[in-house]
Structures are given as C-alpha cells and as structure tokens.
C-alpha cells in the first residue's frame, strides 16, 4: 500500500519561535527485537542496515531510523515513508557526504552507540553525539589527535577519571563536526572544545553553541547548534518500542511526551577585536 501524505494535518511538535530558541533532544533505548516492519525506511537505509555484521548493531540502526522518521513526521506533518532524507554537500570538498538534511527549515542529527540513541531537532544546523566511555588503551591511542590544550586537560585528570574526561571531550567534538557536516574527516585537533571553551584564553568555534549532556553512567553525549544567541536544550524520552507501535499510536506518544531535562545554552561572548598596531612616523 502506498503511504498517503499527512501534510493536511498540523505538525504535532513545534519549535518555539520566541527567544531563547529551543533545541529539542530525544533519547531512545531500543529493544533487542526485530521491528515488525521497515516499510517506512528508504532503499539506502535498508541497504545500510543489511551491511551491519553484528545483529545487535543492525537492530539499533533500524529502531533509530524508524524512530527518526516518525519523529520528523510529527514535526512536519508528512508521513514517515514520504520524508526525503538526503545528504548536503560537504562544506569542504562539495561531495555528497555532508550532514543529513530534510527539505524545508527543519534541521536534525542522529547518533547511536551501544544501545542508546540520541536525536536532535532544531531550526538551524545541529549535531548530536552519544558514545560509550572507552577504555584507557583507546584514550592513549587517540590522545595525539587532540588539540594541545585538550591533551593537557585529559592527561591532567585523575587516572580513574581520564576515560570519561576524554569521552566527554571527544563527544563535543563529534557533535560539532556533525553539525558542520564534515565528520571526523575535518580533523579533530584544529578546534578547541575543551572544558575552558569561551574562557581561559580559549574560544569555542565561532557561531556555534556546544555543550555536554550528563546523567548516563556508561555513555557520554553532547550537542552543537549553529547559533550566536542563547538557546535552550529540551530533552524528551521516546518509548522504547516507538518503532513497533502502529503509526497513529506512535504519533500520539510523541505529541504527549513531556520534557525530562531543560538546559540553558548561554550566548557566546562577543569576541574582543585585536587592536591594530599603530606606527608613529
């Protein structure tokens, strides 16, 4: 059966137009079961799902992408299967591997790792990242790729805290690079995203708000949104089996979801101009 457009119905979720602007975050812990249908996914999503070697990773991917489509449907009023998800051109090389985009004013980002899914929705380019805290060997392997000041922060942390400090930093970097649309191919050592961003002589990337999220013992997560004004990040939880519900029931669950966390993202400080040297004759 061909899915019918749902554009005649109002969007169930909205982004407030007033300041401070809102960034919506949605967390999901998908079940270890096969979704009853993948008909809402497009051919590329199904191809990528089939490429996973591990069954658990494939199931997380399927649940995450069905949830993403149902969530975006709730914002746009378009049936999940009719959403045209594409890749923007890479801002550096122009190739078709930039950040995922949807026609229209809505921006989104998706991340999943070891049983946890995070989705960001905003009115401007956005990136989110979630990942499991690595072991000490992984930290040592990746340290040389960081900005020098970031390496100093990680090495200076207590040894038992070092993996989490590194993971929180790396997650902020991935969220920012996903928002840019370059991914790790841009390089991770050029921009400082340590704990002293916007302070201590270091600056976060101009034009972006970047922050970590807290509350999960085994994972770290972060967000980045292109903005120069204050925003508010609002976190919701999706039902674990959102991909298994009939579509009308899933839409009702999304519409009824209440925030579980709200976090202010202050506007970045205005950069101080560098004085121009004067020369007396």
Give, in spatial order, the strands making up the sheet with the most strands. Answer: 4-5-1-9-10
- The first-to-last residue Cα distance is 82 Å
Helix count? 6
Give, in order, the helices and strands: EHHEEEEEHHHEEEHE
Mean pLDDT: 84
What percent strand?
15-25%
- Global outline: globular
User: Ranges with pLDDT <50 over ≥5 residues?
Assistant: 1-11
Total beta strands: 10
- SS class: alpha+beta
Taking the sheet with the most strands, its summary is: 5 strands, mixed
Helix content range: 25-40%
In angstroms, what is the radius of gyration? 20 Å
Structure write-up:
By secondary structure, the chain is α+β, with helices and mostly antiparallel strands. The protein is built from six helices and ten strands, in the order E-H-H-E-E-E-E-E-H-H-H-E-E-E-H-E. It is globular and about 50 Å long. The chain has helices at 43-50, 55-76, 136-142, 148-156, 162-180, 247-256; strands at residues 21-28, 86-87, 100-101, 107-113, 116-122, 126-132, 208-213, 219-226, 231-237, 261-265. A hairpin with a 5-residue loop joins strand 7 (208-213) and strand 8 (219-226). A five-stranded mixed sheet has the order 4-5-1-9-10, covered by helices on one side. Strands 6-8-7 form a three-stranded antiparallel sheet, with helices on one face. A two-stranded antiparallel ribbon has the order 2-3.
Brief account:
It is built from 6 helices and 10 strands. With 281 residues, the protein is an alpha+beta fold.
